[in-house]
Amino acid sequence: MDKDYQEEQFAGITKFTPPLYKQRYQFVKDLVEKHKPKKVADLGCADCTLLWMLKCCSCIEVLAGLDVCATVMKENMHRLSPLPGDYLQPPERSLTVTLHHGSVAHKDPCMLGFDLVTCIELIEHLEESELKKFPEVVFGFMAPSIVVITTPNSEFNPLLPGVILSRHPDHKFEWSRAQFESWALETARSYDYSVEFTGVGDPPTGMENVGFCTQIGVFVRKCPQTIESAQSEKPAEAVYQTVFRAVYPSLKDEKYLQSAVVNEVIFTAQTIKQSLLDHLMSEPEEYSDDPAEGELEFQPSMNCFPEDLGTLVVENTMEPFVIGNVVYIPLTTIFSVPRVNELCGTFEKLCELIAGRVTLSSDGSAVVLSAEYENEEN
Ligand code: SAH
């Protein structure tokens, strides 16, 4: 593993705060926040730390990792699984995380359709033959809108105590800024991308001429890719092996939407009922003058509508009422509560989602609850 194990140990002049690997990941995160890609692939993802950080970015719906070493990916891949809290309150966005075992020197259709591809400290680990194939696989075949490539800047090495030939024994090369820029410009030109250079890991004061410790190229595709051009290059065969896949709970999945709506409807109905009964108990004269049938009958005005449910978003024509021991909360009232309205979108969808899961009046127009009063003591 190559998480700057040397870069972080350097004593004296060059100690990065935050550590350099975190600065690289933060660079990617900032880029994600700026461009809001939906599909992101990290090539040479190693122990999946970057993917783990990116899963919190709410714009991302598909995250994929690729590494030639399955062992390093598997060590910590459980971090990419949903947590119990993700099931308790599923968000609107969907998220699928997949890890593939394979090489960036080979094309696989599972790598098509990504908006952003990151290659963090990857290229210096590639054999000459792999580095030759890399541009065609990433820029020609995958052809995402944005590619980020980071690699060590060898001009910085003299400032890193203990570094003689390279920063890591597995590095096949380390490039100066001129070498990286010439490779990147040629690659960008061949595949119709533009490229801009930057970096992370500031040089010490007075040594600015060496540049950043990590150099970064951000490539942006010049022409939008058409579906036809992507599909025409699609190879028939999958060569990567999928080693992990997690589908996060989301309200886009009908099953989670239904349980969220049912919970919200029951909560709303209970809150309205409670407010209604509180009102009723505080003004007994309003309902106590018809003792003949021993039943309560009460239709409050909406000024007893609980404020904590939010301001009604649709005009509400029917109002909750009590008959005997039963409270009726019209579905139209429940639909006009912001959270329910937002979840269902339409009244018909509300009816469809709660059918058979919430007790309704015989005509299906109201949620029915027992009028049992729950005050603070019980
Ligand atoms: N991106 C990570 C890891 C960098 S180390 C980080 O920033 O910390 C480089 C990673 O690339 C290693 O995990 C290594 O196994 C992987 N790698 C090397 N050659 C590869 C190839 N041909 N295809 C895919 N991954 C490769």
Notable traits:
378 residues, alpha/beta, methyltransferase, 11 helices, 2 domains, Rossmann fold, single chain, 8-stranded mixed sheet, binds S-adenosyl-L-homocysteine, metal ion binding
Tell me what you see in this structure:
- By secondary structure, this protein is an alpha/beta fold.
- It folds into two domains: about 20-250, Rossmann fold; about 255-280 and about 315-375, no CATH class.
- Helix content is about 30%, strand content about 20%.
- It has eleven helices and twelve strands.
- An eight-stranded mixed sheet has the order 6-7-5-4-1-2-3-8, with helices on both faces. The protein has a four-stranded antiparallel sheet with strand order 9-10-11-12.
- Helix 8 (about 255-280) runs antiparallel to helix 10 (about 340-345).
- The longest helix has 29 residues, at about 255-280.
- The two termini are about 60 Å apart.
- The mean pLDDT is about 90.
- The chain binds S-adenosyl-L-homocysteine (SAH).
- S-adenosyl-L-homocysteine (SAH) binds near residues 3, 21, 44 and 103.
- Belongs to the methyltransferase superfamily. HEN1 family.
- This is Small RNA 2'-O-methyltransferase.
